[in-house]
Amino acid sequence: MDQPEPERPRERLLAHGAHVLTTPELLAIVLRTGTPGCDAVALGHGLIARFGGLRGLLSADAAALMGVPGLGMAKTCELLAIDELGRRALEEDLKSGTALDQPQQVKAYCMANLGHLRVEHCLALYLDSQYRLISGEEVARGTLSQASVYPREVVKAALRHHAAALILAHNHPSGVAEPSGADLSLTRHLKHALALVDVRLLDHIIVACDKTVSLAERGQV
Q1: Which of 14, 39, 109, 137 could form an SS bridge with 90, CB 3.0 to 4.6 Å?
Q2: pLDDT digits (tens, 9 = 90+) for 115-165
Q3: Do residues 135 and 126 make contact, with C-beta atoms less than 8 angstroms apart?
Q4: Of 48, 80, 46, 85, which Cα lies nearest the Cα of 66?
Q5: Half-sphere exposure of residue 47: CA atoms within 13 angstroms, side-chain side
Q6: What is the pLDDT of residue 1?
Q7: Where are the domains of the chain?
Q8: What is the DSSP letter of 116?
Q9: Backbone dihedral region of 37: left (phi > 0), alpha (psi from -120 to 50 degrees) or beta?
């Protein structure tokens, strides 16, 4: 049965603001329609349960989304677009403001790019002389436990981007955010290699699901 007009998510959003809606209700607005025997809000509930939360849903790939009965191409594309727009909004913040003044935005950007991945990936954020983001690029991809990062290649990319500084980030698929001995060793080697070409390593951020650890904040950079 349809909800009474005043109780529908869209009308509540316009009357009171998006913050009053539940996550399934917000998803219902994006998805617009449900599936046979399941309204849009119920579909939102089901998707959150299936993917283990909103982060899992929005980080799911096209194949996983298309595998959900009733989603189809249109709804899959809508969900993929939301995830990408969120990443681009964070990237826009980092391109317009200094990374040193936006540590939480930097962590959020790294989490959005790395937090959902099931194997280790390493990301380098190349920054200009005012510590604004020039580009964020993957520099390594590994197994569940290790990714090979070559400082020489990172230095070459920094020079290609005319970067003045760099933030390194990688994920721990294990969910444990604490740095390993290899993480600390890589940080030391990369810092030394970048210093030879007058590029500063500002931080090395480790992402584990919804947690981040900044080695700079710990005095380990």
Answers
A1: 109
A2: 888 889 999 999 999 999 999 999 998 876 667 888 999 999 999 999 999
A3: yes
A4: 80
A5: 35
A6: 44
A7: 5-87, 97-214
A8: T
A9: left
User: Which two three-digit tokens encode residue 46?
Assistant: 């089901």
* Closest C-alpha to 202, from 107, 131, 110, 138: 131
Q: Enter the pTM of the model.
A: 0.80
pLDDT at 2: 53
Helix, strand, coil shares of the chain, percent, nearest 5, are 50, 15, 35
Are both 5-87 and 97-214 of the same fold?
A: no
Query: What is the strand order of the sheet 211-214 is part of?
Result: 133-141, 121-127, 165-171, 200-208, 211-214
The pair of three-digit structure tokens given for residue 173, joined into one six-digit string: 């698929």
Q: Using 50 as the pLDDT threshold, list the residues of the chain that sit under it.
A: 1, 6
CATH 1.10.150 fits 5-87, yes or no: yes
Rounded to whole angstroms, what are the CA distances from 193 to 1, 135, 137, 159?
A: 65, 20, 18, 12
Q: Report how far residue 158's alpha carbon sits from residue 79's, in angstroms, rounded to the nearest whole number.
A: 33
- Residue 189: the pLDDT is 94
Single-letter amino acid, residue 135: S
Alpha helices in 17-102 (DSSP H): 23-31, 40-50, 54-58, 62-66, 72-96
